[in-house]
């Protein structure tokens, strides 16, 4: 195997990374002194050990964030323009450290280095660049009241930062998800305690270094590494004003329950079981390529994965055979190998989850095409297509979070739309057709926060993202994300 970067460079990047937690501008150990290992999922080898943060560490971080949010703090007194320039500088620094971030993402998550370098890292930088512009555009309104004497009263609104934000991110896009959370919160003037996933803490630690280097005052961004108990402590903390969580719907429910104590604001970007509808009049080559990308991109570890494939009867065999062939062309391997196009699943737990669904699918009568373990080391599962599926099967109803698509055929548009919407989730959906009227009609009827037409996995920092139903509350990205991080205050002045 030829590596995209040589071993000395790998050791240099990993070795120079700060392996501690960031609290109040200092890199510190866990209060307990405990650590845990971060593994390379391609080799199952230990990369580094990081602090095992728990409730006491979460409390230290929240107290630091609260102090940094005080009315007389440097952060609160900073001009909006200066704050915007600092947020923009974070984006610049991410691009300056493009190679290091791509390497850490590949080592920690398993994704191909080339993909992280071309997509994940530039996307994260773009989020900070985009959000930085909003720092000077957070505006209230002067409002003429409907029943008050306009010469006697002046009424207007102010938009103010919500306060201390706990942000809990997943392991599938570690750097991008950190950017989605931290970028708008800083632009809005909030302070943050970031809790990265225990499987993938490394890129968040490098991000913390760069945020400090960009000029963010101590305590504005704090990073606590640890497991679910640290996240639970943040969600329940009485001095946290808002919690933002991306992850499974099951954990999202726990976050809501934990946040109920002080009724803190909650936004959730949760699971998905996205339907992908391919009509017979689609550009079939484009539909095959797009549908394969919808499910196999990022090892299928994506909340918007097109994991339910519905193909109109006349082209069903052609489309399914095409996707199977696309899967066979994918080369699984270590993400640092330039020939690799799909890396391993992130952990043994995730490997067991995905292969467990395949076992259940066989027992329920589905045909499993692919699904083999690849190699005897690392968490590699081959791209998989399930045929002969029914709507009551677990693999059709539940989120798998792996490179597994359940395929079924339909006869008419009137039949498929109720079926496509027959899910508790509503994060993403897609439609492939040459008929723009049918495309628009289908998109309008699909109950999902994002609908792609003749494409998939396309997004942008300017476009709002979030889910219907059990896929979450609120929106990330675009100007809509600032509803998560700002309060509206109404001021009424008697001028008489």
Mind telling me the C-alpha Rg?
A: 23 Å
Helix share, percent: 25-40%
Spatial arrangement of strands, main beta sheet: 13-14-15-12-11-16-17
**CATH class call of the largest domain:** Alpha Beta
List its traits.
496 residues; alpha/beta; Aldehyde Dehydrogenase, Chain A, domain 1; Aldehyde Dehydrogenase, Chain A, domain 2; 2 domains; seven-stranded mixed beta sheet; six-stranded mixed beta sheet; 16 helices; globular
Description:
This protein is α/β, with parallel strands linked by helices and about 500 residues long. The chain folds into 2 domains: about 5-270 and about 470-490, Aldehyde Dehydrogenase, Chain A, domain 1 (3-Layer(aba) Sandwich); about 275-460, Aldehyde Dehydrogenase, Chain A, domain 2. Helix content is about 40%, strand content about 20%. The chain has 16 helices and 19 strands. The strands form 5 sheets. It has a 7-stranded mixed β-sheet with strand order 13-14-15-12-11-16-17, sandwiched between helices. It has a 6-stranded mixed β-sheet with strand order 8-7-6-9-10-18, with helices on both faces. Helix 10 (about 250-260) links the parallel strand 9 (about 240-245) and strand 10 (about 265-270). Helix 4 crosses helix 8. It is globular and about 75 Å long. It starts with 6 loop residues before the first helix and ends with a strand.
